[in-house]
Design brief:
20 strands; alpha/beta; binds iron/sulfur cluster; Cys_rich_dom; single chain; 12% strand; four-stranded parallel beta sheet; Fumarate Reductase Iron-sulfur Protein, Chain B, domain 2; 51% helix; 3 domains; Rossmann fold
Length: 700
Amino acid sequence: MSQPQPIRASLFVTCIVDQLYPEVGVSVVRVLRRAGVAVDFPEGQTCCGQPLYNSGFTAEARKLAERTLNILADRECVVVPSGSCGAMMRVFYLDLFADDPELHARAQDLSQRVYEFTEFLVDVVGYEPGMRDGSDGVSTVAYHPSCHLLREMEVTEAPPRLLDAAPGVSRVELPDAEQCCGFGGAFAVKYPHISEEMLADKVAAATSSGADILTACDMGCLMHIGGAAAVKDTELRQALRRAGAGFDGTRREAIAEVTPEVWEDWREQARRIKEHTIGHLDYYLEMLERNVVAAGGQVHFATDARQANAIVSQIASANGVRTVTKSKSMVSEELGLNHVLEAQGIDVFETDLGEYIIQLAGETPSHLVAPALHKTRAQVAALFAEQLGVPYSEDIEEMARIARVVLRQKFLDADMGISGANFLVAETGSLVIITNEGNGRLCTSAPRIHVGLAGMEKVIPSLQDLAVFLRLLPRSATGQRITSYMSMVTGPRRADDEDGPEEFHLVIVDNGRSRLLADPALRESLYCIRCGACLNVCPVYQRVGGHAYGWVYPGPIGSIVTPALVGIGQAKDLPNASTLCGACRDACPVQINIPRMLLHLRHNIAEGQGSYPAAGSDTDSLLARGFAAVMSNPVLVNLGRRIGRILLRPLSKQGMLGQTRLPLVSRWTRSRDLPLPASRSFGEIWRDELSGSGNEGRNG
Ligand code: SF4
């Protein structure tokens, strides 16, 4: 009677395990064999190319990826003990070779054969550790789901399931488990301050969980977390975290209330509407213009900020405007409109409470939805006392009352109201604004003139489409089922209207949006409805706040639109200031794939593509080429490891390198220990000890 064939697995061990943590590879082999799997180790493997791909060096990444495709060709199952390298092979190779049919087909073939280690054990082998292990004692273990394993490979259940089934293990929940730890490959070295703050939160969460052991399926994350030294906490970070958690918490509750299935259906509807509209933008802008004019309004198209400001300025001059009230408008911030009007001798008053606070403080917004998010209650109280001459009070209702009294008179005095627009409905020529304070309605109806400012991407075809966004926007922004005020303005006051402006002007602004429209990889950034959900879940935004983004649009979406709108020269750091954790994509109500666009921008910057000639740094480029050259040759990889070990060992203690002044390395070791390169690589251990024995396998 013939023996059943064992399941076979080819191990792609990853360069970090091969060179720094070979013992992890050894354990993976042992577990696989214990589960009855016949393991082989394809020779010549080095790096999958992910560090280069994530840094934008696509040409170099392709070399390593193609090499890996060759090495893993025809292997039945490829097992990778890393969520990020597994995601690279399963998901990102498809993007990397999108323009090459032959390589793309091979990447597609590989993507169906690649498994992350725990996923393979559970889904393919059906391994139950409790059936075969006999561990003693009880370890309390918390599990950190690495971002790419969670959001790109979508492996969620296998790791906790294995832990739960393992004898001697008691699993505890890690608070905020899905928050990125701050590794992000080159991010941890390029932005050590932000990375350290994210790490501090992860360490605090692990400590508070009561776990003795923190585990993850990615050695990059574990090297980062495990190397953590003392990291600090700041007032700003705490404030941002509280606010972000508040908005995001209510957003999640609102989604749970309608059920995730319904929510996904709405998101897909919204995406389809935006895709269609942005794909036919000229058609819908013409329809919008026709219908605004038919309703008695005037439409102005502005190609840039200078032109848009000149249009508003001219409308103000022609109508003898002395006082302007404004409801919230990110576009007016983008244009710097207040300064232009003030230079003309016009008094401009922001009437959204958050905008009013930052106008008094002489600051700029730090959040798309909550512009004064960075200010504490005490700071606002002090500001009101100083600027308005009122008694100091930290009572929020009292502060709101004071603002209301001051602003009420401004509404009555204003000659012109300026509003933004959440949506422009083409079929009716309507401008739609959504607020929670009612100031938008007063701005658009009380003064003689109403000027609406909107980016050209704000148009949607119909009122039926508007209904979809009215469900999504308040829930995504603040977790509200419905907004407090929804104002729809269609032209100026008519003869039989009781109130309303005598003139209605709609200024539709390009100001760099055409560049986004022209680039198929960035076009979806124009689907954004400025809900702020991506900011509230972004671990980088939560640490640095909105002002660190340097311009009007903060957070993940700001990192895409700012380079296009202000020029890459002033914003080339933004696309790199992300760990690519993918939380923004999951939160976005329009399913905007921000990480993919960041990768595209990184590629353009690193390789001087598109409208970014030679924007990357020469040092980065040299390092990338050097890394690719070394990683293309396993002999050089091992030689580099040995030399590195000899040079670094005198500076290390117990196999770890602490703070050092060595260039580049110091950016890691300023707050994290770094393991020395291993004395033997996993490849060498395999060759000497593992290849010849225990490979007969058993059925799992
Ligand atoms: S990118 Fe998505 S989540 Fe972020 S502000 Fe825009 S619509 Fe909201």
